[in-house]
Amino acid sequence: MECEKAGGYMMKYMDGVLAEPEALWLNKHILQCEHCKEDFFLYDHIMEHFAKMPLCDAPANFEERVMARIRLLPAPAALTDSLERAFCGIWGVFFVLMALGLLLGMSKDAVIAWLSERAGLALAPLAALMASASDDVTRVSNLFLMNMSQFLTRIWQFFSGLQVILLIAMGLLILVQIVLYKKDKVDTAK
Amino acid sequence: MSPLTDYELIQSCLQGNQDSFAELIARYKNLVYSVILRMVNDREEANDLAQDVFLKLYKNLDKYYPDYKFSTWTIRIATNHVIDYRRRKKQETVSMEEVEYELGTDDSPENAYIRQEQKQELNQMLVDLPDMYKIPIVLYHEQDLSYQEIADIIHEPLSKVKNRIFRGRRMLKESLLNLRKKEQAGYGV
Q1: Chain B: nearest CA to A68, how far in angstroms?
Q2: What is the 3-state secondary structure (H, E, C) of B129-188?
């Protein structure tokens, strides 16, 4: 038990945070305990080695070599800008197509009727094609919504009552822990 | 005029001033090189890897947030880069002799030899430690980083960092003890 305490104090000694009463206690202990005495001097030898370890300097031309490679690259902001532009483009196209699909879906009957009325423009085949495609889309959407609804009902049944309360409580607890941990890390880093 | 802070240099670099990055390299090249050298144990390899780390830092400068010190972010990227590199290479580390520093000339040749031997033995023990213990120990004892800074670098809780440093020290102590026992047995003591 005392040796365990001594081991803890040795770690504090290596961290440079050993208080004076602790140092006196440790000193007294290692005079009585051969095993801890041996440990202490081994640790001391390791610490001495660390203290003498010099910081290794980077080679003399290190900076020039890195900068020569960096000058071949575009500026970091430019890299980000081009990536952001690409993502914006993809999302933009996606949202325009979504909006168009939604508008067509909402007013499909009116569009089909309008196309069918324009006999002179020979748009009847297009109207028929649209009507057929629209029926398919409606069928698939209904099927999807029905399955989703069944799935959600089952989930709700599973997590009803006490289970859902426990789940929410656990989720909140984890969330609080994460927030506290992050806050602690940021505060200490500052 | 006071020198620019790391964050100011980063902002200047993000606005297209590449020379600001040269200043960041000047500030952190020895730190990065030193940490990598302790991990890979080969000067040439450490030089190449340290250069790669700075390129990586440059490409990801916009992802740096001043919540952490730039040095913390830098060492995190450096250690991860070396770990990835090792994983790809799966190579054993080589002798520490290359990293040896010159001994004082006032020593007798015999003392100098013994001290050199002891240094090499301890260096080898450090090299032989698994990365999970070696990285925190090098950062703490060689680079004088705090437990919290190491925790930020290796993305582990403070308690785990302390535990790894304690266990790493114990492993070094056990290796040193075993070595001494072997030496004593060899001398027939």
Answers
A1: 10
A2: CCHHHHHHHHHHHHCCCCHHHHHHHHCCCHHHHHHHHHHHHHHHHHHHHHHHHHHHHHCC
**8 Å CB contact of A185 and B16:** no
Contact between A56 and B177 using a beta-carbon 8 Å cutoff: no
Q: Is B175 on the interface with A (CB under 8 A)?
A: no
The minimum CA-CA distance between A176 and chain B, rounded to whole Å, is 16
d(CA A171, CA A166) in angstroms, rounded, equals 8
- Give yes or no for B21 touching A (CB within 8 A): yes
Chain B, residues 105-164, CB within 8 A of chain A, namely: 118-119, 122, 141-142, 148-149, 151-152, 157
Would you say residue B106 lies in a domain?
no
ipTM above 0.85, yes or no: no
Nearest to residue A7, comparing CAs of A40, A31, A33, A32?
A40
pLDDT in tens, chain A (190 residues): 789 899 999 999 888 888 999 999 999 999 999 999 999 999 988 888 888 777 778 888 899 999 999 888 877 765 666 667 788 888 889 888 888 877 777 777 777 777 777 766 667 777 778 778 878 888 888 899 999 999 988 877 776 766 777 888 889 999 998 888 776 655 544 3
Considering the domain boundaries, does residue B185 fall inside one? no
